[in-house]
Design a protein that fits this description.
Chain lengths: 393, 398
């Protein structure tokens, strides 16, 4: 055998697999570099003919445009980068609020799809089939132009119980106004949060030590609530005063007003994404085999214990990865804000692009920002998957 | 045996009351839920029906139907669309009887023919004959497909592959100076037709690119793999709208001076690249699901790498992921709406034009509801077909 191997001389280099592989890679790399370089060269040439060069220094220039709603102290005399940040904050706000409510509605839908009640099941299925086959953009535009902008004028505002005003200029809800004792109350809130986290950690540690863990998910929020209530009552005066919205002439005074753009975008994203989250939740619950439930009941666990200790952890393992990608989808879909005129990251960047003419830089910046979100999410996913696998056995 | 069977207990007998009790009112909590859900259904349906039949003014749709469906496509050339639609009707009818199963496919065919006939009597004189022809071709295709052998299947398969290019070439035309098929510029494409066109081009071109990317990602050539991974992850990490903007604004800059491409083509490039990245991930899922033994067996038979991929692995992998692929194509169809944001006149873009007409100001609800309905009907039909296809190909059963 060894002789035969020796006898067949090593193949000529053009038939040696290692050489061929290397060669293929070199050719491919060279082709990519060549085309990339050509495209980039064309772009720089084209830009030079337009009288510009690439660079980010324009971000320091004054923006000169107004944004309808911002979370930072942006004005029209701020710089472009501040406008960009205002858009970024708005995107984060819409995503966070959207994710929160989409999760709640999605879980309800997912459970409703498995309900023993035929009518509830039918409603959930019908909602899901309706939403999944709609185009999100068309739905958002319909929702904005056909529903939120068709609400009555401020003078004829619809009043919902709890002093909620619905008008075509926005939805106004009662809001708390901080009083002079608010700063001290904030300290109480922080203390409550620290206590809650400490409780969770302590329970987990104790659970590992003794095998019996108290319900951290119940006790931790209760502890936080207790500290908050104590803080509220111990103050000489209430830290927040209730501010009710009311119609005054042609405007709404008081309360917190959410613009139709914000409301349409957030509620549209929530209604759309919840349908997909509902499917994820349903699949997760169904993935836990019936034998698991029966086995845990046979061991003498109560039905609540079965849910908490057997079904829930296993379902969660199936649910989390697709759920994370739905969250990411919602964040990316929030870029459709441009269709309803809400100043999110993409809308603001587009405005900057039109004002400064810096298409290449702005598109690259926006793409990198969204890419950053995606990368963070996928890092989290990998971490979670690795952790979930460790827990398994 | 049969005379021995006992009647089920009273509560479970197939009486209306028994059914109600079992499914809707088996506990207090459920009874409350039922009442709440029933009230919600009633209020929603009443509101919807009231709006559709009494409040909404559908004149805006009736007047602009042509614009919504075909955009500004010249009237003299509309026959090209009809011809491609007639071909499509034949293919659909034929496929339904070949791949559909039993009664459901018959019912579906009858339903389609009925819809076409109903449309034929609802529309004006000019379209009636075409619609009747389509109905006839659909029925003929269905008739021909019954008990068809392998040869017929292959013909229909080829028909599906050949149809998209025929559709595009027919609609676009060839010669700029008149002649047989004069060129119809893409600036005249619009409405549902443009939405279809973008979807079809996206599917047809993203498929090979996506498969190549998936193979590249699995490749053991490091540089190739890294290139594919980077492309896929970057495209999947950003919203479609940024890709479309990049295609609109940056693509012209990338091209050498003097070479220009029109706006519709740019959007097509963007959609294709976007879809290819997602498709690549789906194909990768299929490739990973193929057991290692298949690779090894192909290798043992002496097949080279490309041959074993093309003959052994890919056919199995693609068959596995058909439902996922159809789901992705539905998503692509819905996503093409975004080209309206970059200024194209697809369904959503045309809606803006319609709403700008002085006679129909403020009819947003009617116009967007109608467009949503169009999207819904086609997406739903596609997902229905995918379930059928899944059944008849036996995906997941082998």
């Amino acid at each position: 055998m060894a002789n035969a191997h020796k006898a067949s001389a090593s193949p000529p280099f053009w038939r040696d697999e290692r050489v061929l592989k290397l060669l293929a890679q070199v050719i491919f790399g060279a082709a990519v570099l060549f085309f990339g370089n050509m495209l980039f060269g064309n772009m720089v040439n084209g830009l030079r003919q337009q009288g510009t060069t690439l660079g980010l220094s324009f971000l320091q220039n004054t923006s000169g445009f107004d944004l309808a709603e911002t979370l930072n102290s942006y004005t029209r005399s701020s710089a472009y980068w501040q406008a960009f940040m205002a858009g970024l904050y708005n995107t984060l706000l819409v995503s966070a609020v959207g994710i929160l409510f989409a999760t709640i509605l999605g879980v309800i839908l997912g459970v409703a799809r498995l309900s023993s009640n035929v009518l509830v099941r039918f409603l959930a299925t019908a909602y899901l089939e309706l939403m999944r086959n709609l185009s999100l953009l068309v739905f958002l535009i319909f929702w904005y132009l056909g529903v939120f902008l068709k609400l009555p004028l401020v003078r004829e505002a619809i009043t919902w119980p709890g002093n909620v005003l619905l008008t075509n200029r926005g939805i106004a809800i009662p809001w708390g106004l901080p009083t002079e004792t608010w700063p001290t109350f904030k300290l109480f809130l922080i203390a409550g949060l620290v206590l809650a986290i400490a409780l969770i950690l302590y329970f987990r540690w104790q659970g590992k030590r003794t095998g019996k863990s108290p319900l951290a998910i119940v006790w931790a929020p209760l502890a936080f609530l207790a500290v908050a209530v104590a803080g509220w009552l111990l103050q000489p005066s209430a830290p927040l005063s209730l501010d009710l919205p009311a119609v005054q002439g042609l405007n709404i005074r008081g309360g917190r007003i959410f613009t139709p753009e914000f409301m349409a975008l957030v509620s549209g994203l929530v209604l759309y994404t919840a349908a997909f989250i509902g499917e994820v939740v349903r699949a997760g619950i169904q993935a836990v085999s019936k034998g698991q439930v029966e086995a845990s009941r046979a061991l003498g666990l109560s039905s609540f214990q079965t849910l908490r200790l057997v079904v829930f952890p296993q379902a969660l393992q199936v649910i989390i990865p697709p759920l994370t990608s739905q969250y990411l989808n919602l964040t990316k879909n929030s870029s459709l804000a441009i269709a309803v005129g809400y100043p999110d990251l993409f809308y603001v960047s587009n405005t900057i692009l039109n004002q400064s003419g810096r298409a290449v830089e702005m598109i690259t910046l926006v793409m990198l920002t969204y890419l950053f979100f995606s990368l963070v999410t996928s890092v989290f996913m990998n971490w979670y998957n690795a952790r979930a696998r460790l827990v398994e056995r | 045996m049969s005379e021995m069977t006992l009647k089920p207990p009273l509560a479970e007998r197939r009486s209306l009351l028994g059914w109600l009790r079992k499914n809707l009112f088996n506990s207090w909590g459920n009874a409350i839920l039922t009442v709440a859900a029933g009230w919600l259904t009633f209020v929603t349906l009443r509101g919807l029906l009231q709006w559709v039949f009494t409040e909404a003014d559908w004149a805006v749709i009736v007047t602009n139907l042509r614009l919504i469906l075909l955009g500004q496509y010249p009237i003299a050339e509309v026959w090209r669309i009809w011809v491609s639609m007639a071909l499509l009707a034949f293919l659909i009818g034929n496929s339904l009887s070949i791949w559909g199963k039993g009664k459901t496919s018959t019912r579906f065919t009858v339903l389609l023919v009925a819809v076409l006939l109903a449309l034929a009597f609802a529309v004006g004189e000019s379209s009636r004959l075409w619609l009747l022809g389509m109905a006839a071709l659909l029925a003929a295709g269905w008739w021909l497909g019954r008990g068809a052998g392998k040869a017929m299947r292959n013909v229909v398969g080829i028909g599906w592959v050949v149809w998209p290019p025929i559709f595009i070439l027919l609609l676009r035309g060839f010669s700029a100076q008149g002649g047989v098929l004069p060129l119809v510029g893409t600036n005249l494409w619009g409405g549902l037709m443009l939405t279809f066109m973008l979807t079809i081009v996206g599917i047809v071109f993203s498929f090979p690119i996506g498969v190549l990317l998936a193979l590249g990602r699995q490749s053991n050539l490091t540089i190739v793999r890294w290139f594919c991974v980077t492309f896929i992850e970057v495209v999947r990490g950003v919203p479609l709208i940024t890709i479309l903007f990049m295609a609109q604004l940056m693509l012209p800059l990338f091209l050498p001076a003097g070479l220009t491409i029109d706006r519709v083509l740019r959007a097509m490039v963007g959609i294709t690249l976007f879809s290819a990245a997602y498709l690549a991930e789906n194909v990768r899922g299929g490739l990973q699901a193929i057991p290692k033994g298949q690779y090894e067996a192909a290798y043992a038979l002496g097949l080279s790498n490309p041959l074993s991929m093309g003959l052994i692995i890919l056919p199995q992998a693609l068959r596995l992921i058909i439902p996922i692929l159809v789901g992705q194509f539905i998503a692509l169809f819905k996503d093409t709406a975004l080209v309206a944001i970059v200024g194209l006149f697809d369904l959503v873009g045309i809606a803006r034009t319609v709403l700008a007409q002085p006679a129909f100001l403020g009819t947003h609800r009617e116009v967007y509801a109608f467009i949503s309905l169009l999207y819904w009907v086609f997406s739903y039909a596609m997902s229905y077909v995918s379930i059928r296809l899944e059944d008849s190909l036996g995906v997941g059963k082998r």
